[in-house]
Design a protein that fits this description.
The complex is a heterodimer. Chain A is of the alpha+beta class. Chain A folds into two domains: 89 residues, PAS domain (Beta-Lactamase, 2-Layer Sandwich); 58 residues. In chain A, 48% of the residues lie in helices and 22% in strands. Chain A has a five-stranded antiparallel beta sheet with strand order 2-1-5-4-3, with helices on one face. In chain B, the strands form two sheets. Chain B has a three-stranded parallel beta sheet with strand order 3-4-5, sandwiched between helices. In chain B, strands 1-2 form a two-stranded antiparallel ribbon. The two termini of chain B are 19 Å apart. Classes of the chains: A alpha+beta, B alpha/beta. Strand 3 of chain A pairs parallel with strand 1 of chain B, so a sheet runs across the interface.
Chain lengths: 151, 158
């Protein structure tokens, strides 16, 4: 557990009922959170969490939030009777792994879509060719019959 | 920013916030948050723009990201007709979570006229529902400022 915590650069902040900073600690600088002070309003420090400060006091988790450049965090927000805990866990490695997988998967899907589009265009073109051919054949047949009638 | 993968959500944000564009497709995992301050008729508005990962076979929309949403841009790709249909399904999901929140539908990649796949009848259907629908291009910048200004105005009027 200790090893896992260390790897995840745990940081926390506790906000009082008015969403002012009461306590903080851990690897805050990992997430670009510097110069925090008790009494600061959380909206000024965590503007991206503004949505949590309004509405219902329901705890939750936002996964894979990009904070500092190239740093991603899982942001847990936990309401209790005294206030709100915000806990950051480094998710950068997981995001890097997912990005690689997702990039390849999406590129493959885009290629499949392109192939499908081209196939549809090909089918439409073939259909037009067949129709044209049928029209030509019909006219030829019509011309032959006309020639025979004249004889 | 909501929509399936590769419709141009990140490109639209990058164009609006940084005035840059890249043709290279780079998938978004999780959420990236950008801030931009705009002036709207003399009022200074701070926009927190949440660029969410697109829905794909790997990831469904994470509803936790929607908490506190004032408004959203629902993005489809005009060169991929199915992205429009999926956007409609996404809207239904979002409506269940955030309720009746202002949104603007963007049909992106308007510069790719020779690859355009989306039937105008579908766009007309959306317009008939009194939706705000705009054709945009993150590449040329067409209607990008207007899109963000429109959604900002709509959220402020709410």
């Amino acid at each position: 557990m200790a090893l896992n915590f260390e790897k995840r650069s745990v940081a926390f902040c506790f906000l009082d009922q008015d969403y002012q900073i009461n306590r903080f600690g851990g690897s805050l600088e990992t997430y670009g959170l510097r110069d925090l002070q008790e009494g600061q309003h959380a909206e000024n420090v965590f503007p991206f969490l503004e949505g949590i400060f309004i509405g219902s006091r329901q705890s939750g988790l936002m996964r894979h939030v990009a904070l500092e450049s190239s740093v991603f965090a899982d942001v847990h927000y936990i309401f209790d009777e005294n206030g709100l805990w915000i806990v950051f866990l480094d998710a950068t490695q997981e995001v890097e792994r997912l990005t690689l997988m997702q990039q390849r998967g999406n590129e493959a899907n885009l290629l499949k879509e392109k192939i499908n589009q081209l196939n549809l265009q090909l089918e439409a073109a073939n259909s037009r060719i067949e129709n044209l051919q049928a029209e030509i054949d019909s006219r030829k047949s019509g011309d032959c019959n006309h020639a025979l009638d004249e004889k | 920013m909501l929509g399936v993968f590769a419709v141009g959500k990140t490109s639209l944000v990058q164009r609006f916030v940084k005035s840059i564009f890249s043709d290279k497709y780079l998938t978004t995992v999780g959420v990236k948050i950008d801030k931009k301050t705009i002036d709207l008729g003399g009022t200074t508005v701070d926009l927190m723009l949440w660029d969410l990962q697109g829905e794909d076979e790997f990831q469904e929309l994470q509803v936790s990201y929607l908490r506190g949403t004032s408004g959203y841009l629902l993005v489809a790709d005009g060169t991929r007709a199915f992205s429009f249909d999926r956007a409609l399904l996404l809207k239904e999901k979002v409506d269940k979570v955030v309720g009746d929140v202002p949104f603007v539908m963007l049909i992106n990649k308007a510069d790719l006229t020779d690859q355009w796949e989306l039937d105008e009848a579908k766009v007309d259907e959306a317009l008939a529902r009194n939706w705000h629908v705009m054709k945009t291009s993150a590449k040329t910048g067409e209607n990008v400022e207007e899109a963000f200004q429109t959604i900002t105005m709509m959220t402020m009027e709410q």
